[in-house]
Amino acid sequence: MALDIVATVPQIETPDGLRLGVRIGVASGLVVVGDIEGAPAGISTVAFGYVPNLAHRLQAIAVPNGIYVDENTYQTTAGAFEYADVGGKTLKGFSGPIHICRALKPIARQYRFAGELQSTPLVGRKSELQAVGTLWDAVRADGNGRIALISGEAGISKSRLLYEVGRSFPG
């Protein structure tokens, strides 16, 4: 989505004939989100802490129409996006240099979970993986094929489960 924003915003022209620009900062990690009592109208929930502050600082120093990411974001998404190394920068409010990369473009992948992505742990699917593992053990033992049906509502991670099955029980 950030790449789409960076591609689209510069196409917008102001009434003066100027082109708009955008700078995006992305940081990954734990965030504390809370309601602010007595906050101005329209602002009731705010993100606090290291990560939102870092994202703000990255956005502030990003080149026009650029997306700057922190090391955590880079490590998690390096298999999905091409990056340019910006190097270490000292940012206000942070004790040492922060390693920064600039997101350039997505890396074409045949399958959305493929690539050298550092995936989040698969949660709540242990029994499903074990069931497929049992079928796979039987196939290997007697050479006869088996069928497993994986079905459910959209968005419950069926594709991710299949990806993990392929990783857990190769060829």
UniProtKB/TrEMBL annotation:
<dbReference type="InterPro" id="IPR029787">
    <property type="entry name" value="Nucleotide_cyclase"/>
</dbReference>
<feature type="domain" description="Guanylate cyclase">
    <location>
        <begin position="1"/>
        <end position="59"/>
    </location>
</feature>
<dbReference type="GO" id="GO:0009190">
    <property type="term" value="P:cyclic nucleotide biosynthetic process"/>
</dbReference>
<dbReference type="GO" id="GO:0005737">
    <property type="term" value="C:cytoplasm"/>
</dbReference>
<dbReference type="Pfam" id="PF00211">
    <property type="entry name" value="Guanylate_cyc"/>
</dbReference>
<protein>
    <submittedName>
        <fullName>Adenylate and Guanylate cyclase catalytic domain-containing protein</fullName>
    </submittedName>
</protein>
<dbReference type="GO" id="GO:0005524">
    <property type="term" value="F:ATP binding"/>
</dbReference>
<dbReference type="InterPro" id="IPR001054">
    <property type="entry name" value="A/G_cyclase"/>
</dbReference>
<dbReference type="GO" id="GO:0035556">
    <property type="term" value="P:intracellular signal transduction"/>
</dbReference>
<keyword id="KW-0547">Nucleotide-binding</keyword>
<keyword id="KW-0067">ATP-binding</keyword>
<dbReference type="GO" id="GO:0004016">
    <property type="term" value="F:adenylate cyclase activity"/>
</dbReference>
